[in-house]
Specification:
The protein folds into four domains: about 90 residues, no CATH class; about 100 residues, Beta Barrel (OB fold (Dihydrolipoamide Acetyltransferase, E2P)), CATH 2.40.50; about 280 residues, no CATH class; about 240 residues, Ribonuclease Z/Hydroxyacylglutathione hydrolase-like (Metallo-beta-lactamase, Chain A). The chain starts with a helix and ends with a strand. An eight-stranded mixed sheet has the order 14-13-12-11-10-9-22-23, covered by helices on one side. Strands 15-16-17-18-19-20-21 form a seven-stranded mixed sheet. Strands 1-3-4-6-5 form a five-stranded mixed beta barrel. It is globular and about 90 Å long. A hairpin with a 2-residue loop joins strand 17 and strand 18. It has 27 helices and 23 strands. Helices cover about 50% and strands about 15% of the residues. Helix 7 packs across helix 17, helix 9 packs parallel to helix 13 and helix 14 runs antiparallel to helix 18.
Length: about 800
């Protein structure tokens, strides 16, 4: 008896013809679902596995299919056993090294290094020795980088210290990725050899793909297209990455099942527009995914994404609902068989939820929207109707995926992006062309076409990529872009999905009740003269375009002198804006703070002056991004001749963009805004001969910014030791030095300055900033004090007679 016949027989009641309910009539679904459940329970205790197996048997027995229930229970137990063996294989390498031991080994670089707060990290695969085949996370400190020529697949000789995976949330993430431990790097060198076999072939294909996809494009657009098409986003700046997160478009840059599904879903309208049938669409989309996965590295996460994507494509293109749900269950089983821990990964959950949402909500909504298109455009040309139908289907898929993933986003990240739905709909026409042009560039690279052909596609590809980046930027600036949704527990997530289900059923009921009125309205619409219908449609379209344009408008500059102590976390960034549009920025905070986004929200279009007060990551780290994203006239260089790599990057970026460089040495006076803004640099004086000081803080730029009667004191991290010797004037406001650190001489400085108001630019930190002694000194001096860690950005508006303060929180 064939397997299909056996499962069909097991689904029947013991006597007579099959009378089982719908669940028992789908034996394959039950078999795959219970096997997937067993795989996901691989780390659970035996008593839980047995209880779930017994529950499956009892449930199916109640549905008059006890034999199928027995098979389901057996598959739960078998899946847990197979999953356990798979976990033993994944974790086997962890038992072959001693935590804290020093090792010297050969390894293949598995991924491009990704920069972090304290260095970079990359995945490696050990080659040879007792750790052969083990996957480790390589920790690369700033003082010992990898050779610049190292690319994924290159063999490295590494010396460092092994560290076992711990027990925190990050350790759980590493285990889900199959990483056995961490290697803290001391030194590395290239051996000149590369990975061989199928993995080496994929390495070479990936290199050709990477080179081709960025050909003929600027660095910003190239990094985005590389992230969108290959899922490699390590070259995208943190500020741009944050824009995509805040706008709800981050899935375009992340290699996940959701990203792969969106790639396929956004390509689907083009295929429909081309007139392809269901089978042709399925084949074309499957080929797209099959190419995407190996060219992007074919790692475990990509394999999961590929399986989920192809399953989703099959689900969308299949003719029977049972086939769609079966494909989804099969994808879950395959990905869990590869890694039984995958179900705990947020990306896996989001992928699964997106596909399920498309099946449960997107397909019915698509049918409704397509029917609406046919009713509204009965006499339109067939090409226009096909295009409208394709757009309607893409809209339905986007809406369904957004709704279906919202509870999980709230659970894992504590917030959702309501504006993301509109952002995704507006990005819909641009994403598919960008993806397809990127894939065409990759194809040209793979077949060995001349490089100028791929480069020629760079300019066309930069257009949709630029549109997407602009949408991400504008939507990230909206005040309602991100809304808190703290679904902390699985119960809360279940309740949210229950609410979505109830809402969907309510909408379905309402739609049925309103159908007669809708049909009557459509009948009246068709009876209108054609010119009237065209005019009304154009008016509605124009109203929508104007509304979206108003929503995404760029804010204007303030009409009064404004000082903003920007909330950049544990760092400094102070913005001064003159009513004529002149803007000055003192420091840019750390790179991950996204100061460029804060400048946009303040209405900055151009910066007359950027001041890099001294070499410190939490001051100059964000200035590279500022120089890239805003026209800048001049840079006041307070580096004091430093060799710090981060500060030198700021100088290189300024030079590359033709920004005038002024060395910050006292005494120095600058006049801007036609004399409306004056900057007096009080310190530092030219550095005497000799080695550079170890601590750059005392020689940071100390300046007074004046406009009319108002004077502002800014001193970066220079404290009383450097300030007391200066001739300090009376001022109206000041930035407290060094994030409010302990400074015994601060009372004397306050006596000299006599400020009315002070702002402490500070974020969550382990240094104790601001200290109790600093707060006490300010209080004793009668200074009104604000701090960005509690109040967010502090905005000071100055008119002819007074200062007004507004805080973000």
């Amino acid at each position: 008896m064939k397997a299909s016949q056996l499962l069909a027989a097991l689904s029947r009641a013991p006597n007579g013809p099959p009378r089982a309910p719908a669940l028992a009539e789908r034996p394959y679904h039950v078999a795959v679902a219970t096997a997937a459940a067993g795989l996901g329970l691989a780390e659970a205790r035996l008593v839980l596995v047995v209880a779930i197996a017994a529950g499956c048997f009892a449930a199916l027995a109640c549905l008059r299919a006890p034999q199928l229930g027995g098979v389901a229970a057996a598959l739960v137990l078998a899946g847990a056993s197979v999953g356990g063996l798979r976990l033993v294989a994944i974790d086997g390498a962890a038992g072959h090294f001693k935590d804290g031991s020093t090792v010297d080994l050969r390894a293949y670089l598995g991924s491009a290094p990704r920069q972090g707060l304290f260095g970079a990290s990359a995945e490696i695969e050990v080659a040879g020795g007792r750790l052969d085949g083990a996957r480790l996370l390589l920790r690369i400190p700033r003082w010992s980088p990898l050779p610049t020529a190292a690319r994924p697949g290159a063999e490295l000789r590494l010396h460092g210290r092994i560290r076992a995976v711990g027990s925190d949330a990050f350790a759980d993430q590493l285990r889900r990725r199959g990483i056995a431990g961490e290697l803290l790097l001391d030194r590395a060198r290239l051996t000149g050899r590369r990975r061989g076999g199928a993995a080496g072939l994929l390495d070479r294909m990936r290199e050709r793909a990477e080179d081709a996809v960025v050909a003929g494009m600027g660095p910003g657009e190239a990094a985005l297209l590389r992230g969108m098409v290959l899922g490699q986003d390590e070259r995208i700046s943190e500020a741009v990455r944050e824009d995509f997160r805040a706008s709800g478009l981050a899935h375009l840059l992340a290699v996940s099942g959701q990203n792969v599904m969106l790639l396929a879903a956004l390509a689907l309208p083009l295929l429909i527009l081309a007139g392809l049938g269901v089978r042709a669409r399925l084949f074309a989309l499957a080929v797209l995914i099959a190419l995407y996965v190996p060219l992007a590295g074919a790692g475990p996460s990509l394999q999961r994404a590929g399986v989920m994507g192809i399953a989703g494509i099959a689900a969308m293109a299949a003719s029977r609902p049972a086939s769609r749900s079966y494909a989804l269950l099969l994808a879950a089983a395959v990905t869990l068989a590869w890694n039984p821990r995958a179900w705990a990964d947020p990306g896996w959950q989001l992928s699964f939820a997106a596909v399920a949402g498309i099946l449960g909500l997107g397909l019915p909504l698509g049918r409704v929207l397509r029917r609406g298109v046919e009713e509204l455009l009965p006499c339109a040309p067939s090409a226009l109707r096909r295009g409208a139908n394709g757009l309607a289907e893409g809209m339905a898929i986007t809406i369904a995926a957004t709704v279906a993933t919202a509870p999980l986003l709230g659970h894992h990240f504590g917030s959702v992006t309501p504006a993301g739905l509109l952002a995704n709909l507006l990005a819909l026409p641009a994403v598919a062309p960008a993806m397809w042009l990127g894939m065409l560039k990759i194809a040209l690279g793979q077949v060995g076409a001349p490089g100028f052909l791929a480069a020629a596609l760079g300019a066309p590809a930069a257009i949709p990529v630029g549109v997407i980046a602009w949408l991400a930027e504008r939507f990230a600036d909206l005040s309602f872009a991100r809304v808190s949704l703290p679904l902390a527990s699985p119960v809360a997530v279940t309740g949210a999905y229950g609410a979505i289900a109830v809402g969907a059923l309510g909408l379905r009921h309402a739609a049925r009740a309103l159908t007669p009125r809708a049909l009557e309205g459509l009948s009246r619409w068709r009876r209108l003269p054609r010119a009237t219908r065209v005019g009304l449609a154009a008016a509605v379209g124009a109203a929508i375009v104007l509304s979206i344009g108003w929503l995404l408008r760029t804010p204007g500059a303030p009409d009064r002198l404004t000082v903003r102590f920007l909330d950049v976390g544990q760092g400094d960034a102070t913005l001064i804006q003159h009513p004529d549009g002149t803007a000055i920025l003192f420091d840019g905070g750390p790179p991950e703070a996204g100061v460029a986004r804060l400048l946009r929200r303040a209405g900055v279009r151009r910066l007359a002056l950027v001041v890099a007060t001294h070499a410190s990551r939490d001051h100059q780290g964000g200035l590279v991004e500022v120089l890239r994203r805003f026209p800048v006239d001049s840079l006041l260089d307070g580096g004091d001749g430093t060799h710090d790599a981060g500060f030198r990057a700021v100088l290189r970026e300024a030079a590359a963009r033709g920004v005038r460089r002024i060395r910050a040495t006292a005494p120095l006076a600058l006049t801007l805004a036609g004399g409306g803004l004056r900057i007096a640099v009080l310190s530092p004086e030219p550095r005497p001969p000799g080695p550079q000081p170890e601590d750059p803080n005392p020689r940071g730029v100390v300046a007074i910014v004046s406009s009319g009667w108002f004077d502002l004191f800014l001193s970066a991290d220079a404290e009383s030791e450097a300030l007391i010797p200066l001739d300090l004037p009376d001022v109206d406001a000041m930035k407290v030095p060094h994030h409010g650190s302990s400074d015994p001489g601060l009372p004397e400085v306050l006596d000299e300055l006599e400020p009315q108001l002070a702002a402490i630019e500070v974020g969550p930190n382990t240094y104790g900033h601001p200290t109790a002694s600093t707060l006490r000194a300010l209080r004793n001096a009668g200074v009104i004090t604000h701090r960005t860690d509690r109040e967010g950005t502090v905005t000071l508006t100055i008119d002819e007679k007074a200062m007004r303060v507004q805080t973000e929180r």
